[in-house]
## 1
Amino acid sequence: MEITLKDMKELFGATAVELPFDIDSKWLIRTVTFAVTGKVKQVKGKFIVLEDAAWVADTGRFSTAIESGTLSEVEVVTVDVVVNTDSIVDAYVWKHELPKQTV
């Protein structure tokens, strides 16, 4: 018996989800446990792969961080970061240069 995608959707209630994360777009993403900045390298299923990423321990005044790109405490990482979209609380387009130094 061959099961089609339509059959699977009916059986499991699965629906396709379109995510707003375009390749090469830059974001500040807040999850239930941390925040991260980075450039989208790949979106695979419910995972976003970020390159040129940094863990954000403290944004400082949040509106200032979003408007100016100034973050209070940041740790740059040298590997890709994978974020599960189920953990995202909110996400902001990052219009600034991504952090390049740990501060």
## 2
Amino acid sequence: MWFKQIQLFQLPKQNFSIPEITEKLEQLTFKPCLPSLPYSTGWVSPIDEENAPILRSVNGYIMLCMQIEEKILPNVVITQELKEKIKQIEASQDRRVRQKEKMSLKDEITFTLMPKAFSKISRFYAYIDTKNHWLVIGSTNAAKNEQFINLFKRSICEEIKTFDLIKPPAVFTHWLKSKDYPNLFSIEDACVLQDPNQQKRVIRCQNQDLFAQSIQALIKDGCEAKQIALSWCDRLQFTLAEDFTLRSIQYGEDILTHSKDIGETKQQKFDADFYIMTETLTHLLKDLLPLFTKKENKEISAKKEILEPA
């Protein structure tokens, strides 16, 4: 349940009532995918336990879980069936099958094979921070996050916004060029550089001193930092990407050790992990967001050469 990657959204300043949200979630609980459909989505309990509640609430944080069932139908199978069908038509009717008819045949074959397809079940977690009015999704998969947001809008709240940010690559690059970055953070030994004038010129740096002359030469030559590895207060390490997603999150041993000592039942253990994780991520985000949020960042906004609208 510990989020290893997150994407952050802004929610409206409204009261998120637990009974009201519970009722709304229960109207769109997960139902198995019908044989003829390619996928199904719905809400399930964040705790994989029979009769567990549809949501979990701890200290102002509300954990949700979306379950997806997807039918696995490889394209190679559809293509093979399509070729056989075309061959039969052309042989029996002595004519060529045109492109429009091929597309129609492909749809028919897909519909016919769908009930025979295997199913893949996956779960995606997110939590509502009712104090800061955030939605924190534990995934950076754009397609799956869009599915989650669509279900969230249908169930709970239609107004979800992204943050109005200073371009993260401009900030990353400034930190590397000037060695001037907030003392709560440390720059680690990995980044991704890209030349904005030559999009295919991408340099991935691993286990490198980012302030070494070789890396600095690339930056002086026009490369921007698109991702950068950071640590925060010696408690947590992560990679911050240009879209302000946090990836490859690693929690410090002191955090994980403390978590192991709390809780006996599955639900107690879940609640303990949930509490520690959310409190840790909230403090991190409160330190991180002002560095990139236009309304709050006065120091960086004064450096006009690195400020371009996102």
## 3
Amino acid sequence: MSKRPVFPGQNLYVLGHPCGLPLKYAPGSAVENIEKAYFISRMDIYSGNSGSPVFCADTHEMVGMVVQSDPSDFCWYENGWVSMV
């Protein structure tokens, strides 16, 4: 875990296994806002990514972990849930 503080505009990527999928690498996001105990970023993740490590794209140090995402990633279609993306 990095000991350096995150900053607005810092480039990030995330690795994870959302919803039991194979390892997903999601680059191309950045820190948008910083609160006391967390930062906000728009990442290409599913709600099943909770616990996934978030890395600084420049140093590859872990700078955080996914704790919340948009629950509207899925919609009900006929007999089951379907990814909106």
## 4
Amino acid sequence: MTLQQLTYFLATAEHGSFSRAARALYLAQPSLSEQVRSLEAELGVELFARVGRGVVLTEAGRAFRPEAERVLAALAGAREAVTDVRELSGGTLSIGMFGTASGFLLARLVADFRSRHPNVRLRLVGQNSSAVAEDVRRGRLEAALVVLPVDDEGLEIRPARREEVVYVSREPERVRGPVTIEQLAGAPLILYDAGYGWSDPTRRQLLERAQRAGVQLEPVIEIEDMDAALELTVSGLGDTIAPKAALEHRPSFRRLGTASFAEPLYDDFAFIARRGAPVSPAARAFLELAERRLAEFGEGVLYAGVAGEPT
């Protein structure tokens, strides 16, 4: 059974004649009649009975007609939905962002995208980069901005930005010079992203360094939120790590001291999508806009606050 056969059947039912249906569809009558006969043969019933020079639906034809109409209506709806997505006039775009992405960046991106494509719905999922990457790989998200490294199986990765990660302490003597991995292993360490632990991309880098050096990293406190880890550091409960730019855009944390690592540590940001999978026009437009905004705003926008321009 083909969509063409359903179209020919419905046209014949509407016009009451093979010849009139063929003229309406700009076809030769034998072609239309042959397709209707093939449909009847497949169904094992006659759909039309001849009456004079025309045809009328049989009981089987009357039962079949609403089903054929439903199939063609569904096809038209599917085509319309695809057209909406193709022309950015509808549909939902699901994009992932690393969990600590700034409210400022997201607010500007959403405002810019919605002003250009007001009929496209946005679904922004913010969580740890390892989880975001898995959602992209499984097709639950179309694309994402993540922190590397992530498992790149089945993913296309396009580097976007690099931000230095520093050691943070309230105690000046602990940040007088570059911090080694051995010093980090002996520090009262507070680490965020507790739910993802050592699968978190930044923590993975530190773990690999510790393993190469033959030392263990054992935080005294683990907590989910980066700002909460910084608050605990302000309270003197331990030291933490954080992107340098995150401190610059959080005035309440500027009194904390920082030091680079002896082997500099970076958060490398990248756009990811499923390898070999087509990217929708909406996703392509959003990613191009994100890339452009990152270049325009300069360093620190990834962690800037919601209110005001990045400083």
